[in-house]
Design brief:
By secondary structure, the protein is of the alpha+beta class. The protein is built from eleven helices and seven strands.
């Protein structure tokens, strides 16, 4: 590895949390997130202060391996932390999604020197972003960004990335790119270039204008002749040459966001019915909360959300079980468990955030209340990966025992 000035991490450390402490901290933070969520959404106030609090709390460091001084908490705990945070503000919860995915990538493919440095950065409160997807290519796994050799252990990075959630708030931006050779320009294997947010040639533009998840700042990253040292490049393609839970890990965190959105929508629907809604005359009751049709609808929504929460817990545990005894079989089992919760949670999040208005009545649709943010958030986030393909992979396994594909979206 070529010597580089980035190989000294800061000494200051964030708290190293136990599983119980992580849940307690997330629960304490979520009340403040919920209190400001509607106004941040309405005025598109980016959550820099909220993310700084997450960093300082130690929550963003809970998956750093124990041998590097971290808590090394299991996926099951991280999933619950994500779910809790998403009940308060799913935009804030989504921003560190890529942070944890790339902490996991460093665990998979980093050299001991790289792990020492980058895990040290996380323990010092630094955040990782995301520059992975590209706009205008054939499909989500079609990557055009490239690392061209520049000699003396250095590379030149060029490309444009879209949907770069977390990049605006990051200290380091992991960039997915082909590492070219003179014999195969533009066709080398995929690697991750770890680039400082403030490096020359890096521009992050806050041009995300989605109808939901409005404050994730999932904008554009432009990379123009960015110099990257060997010390800041890790292989990506090798992750999928054998059994892996990398994809299942990333996907189960997305499921946690959906489940959190569904729980928040149901919570606000029940609050509105209890405090504000008027009963329909035919019900013959004094409170909307006593209307048997409303109670029945809320009860069915509760069943659906509880089912999603149960599938989420199972998926988190299954990923952990696969990590403890990794094989093609256990990795496939983890991917299928995550596919199940992703398919179910996507449906439940959209359905419950829509039925909110059915049970709460006409006044709940007022823009001034901004209850529609739950549906906008659910509809936007659940577009991240097609739920129908999760069902397809589950169906093919049920019919013929066909294992799911070995890639990062499952």
């Amino acid at each position: 590895m070529t010597a580089a000035p980035v190989l000294d991490a800061e000494a200051t450390q964030v708290p190293v949390l136990s599983a119980e402490e992580a849940i307690e901290v997330a629960t304490a933070i979520v009340a403040d997130l919920a209190a400001g969520s509607s106004e941040r959404d309405r005025h598109r106030v980016l959550p820099e202060r909220e993310l700084d609090r997450l960093s300082a709390s130690g929550l963003l460091a809970i998956t750093v391996p124990a041998e590097h001084g971290g808590a090394d908490l299991p996926t099951e705990v991280l999933v619950e932390v994500f779910r809790i945070l998403a009940t308060g503000d799913p935009s804030v919860a989504q921003v560190p999604h890529s942070h944890f995915v790339y902490v996991n990538a460093m665990r998979y493919q980093g050299t001991p020197e790289q792990q020492r440095f980058f895990f040290g950065e996380v323990l010092a409160g630094k955040r990782f972003g995301n520059a992975q997807s590209e706009v205008g290519t054939r499909h989500v796994r079609d990557i055009r960004t490239s690392l061209a050799p520049a000699g003396q252990g250095r590379w030149i990075l060029n490309g444009t990335k879209g949907y770069s959630t977390g990049a605006l708030f990051a200290h380091w931006i992991p960039v997915l790119a082909h590492q070219d050779t003179l014999a195969a320009p533009g066709a080398g294997p995929l690697h991750v270039a770890w680039v400082e947010r403030t490096a020359p040639g890096v521009t992050v533009t806050d041009d995300w204008n989605g109808m939901g998840q409005r404050t994730t700042a999932s904008g554009t990253v432009d990379l123009v002749d960015v110099v990257v040292d060997d010390a800041c490049i890790t292989p990506y393609h090798l992750t999928f040459e054998g059994p892996q839970t990398y994809g299942a890990f990333a996907q189960v965190l997305h499921a946690a966001l959906d489940v959190g959105i569904a729980r928040a929508a149901l919570r606000d629907a029940a609050d509105f019915v209890r405090t504000t809604s008027r009963p329909y005359p035919d019900a013959g009751v004094d409170r909307a909360a006593d209307d048997p049709l409303v109670v029945q609808a809320l009860g069915q929504m509760e069943i659906d959300v509880r089912a999603a929460e149960a599938l989420l817990r199972e998926a988190g545990r299954t990923v952990d079980a696969a990590d403890d005894d990794l094989s093609a079989s256990t990795a496939a089992t983890a991917s299928l468990a995550v596919a199940a919760v992703r398919a179910h949670s996507a449906k439940v999040a959209v359905d419950v955030s829509s039925r909110l208005f059915e049970v709460a009545g006409t006044r709940s649709a007022l823009d001034s209340l901004n209850l529609n943010r739950h549906w906008r958030n659910a509809r936007t986030h659940t577009l991240h990966d097609p739920a129908a393909w999760k069902v397809q992979h589950l169906g093919r396994y049920v019919v013929d025992g066909t294992p799911p594909p070995n890639h990062g979206q499952l």
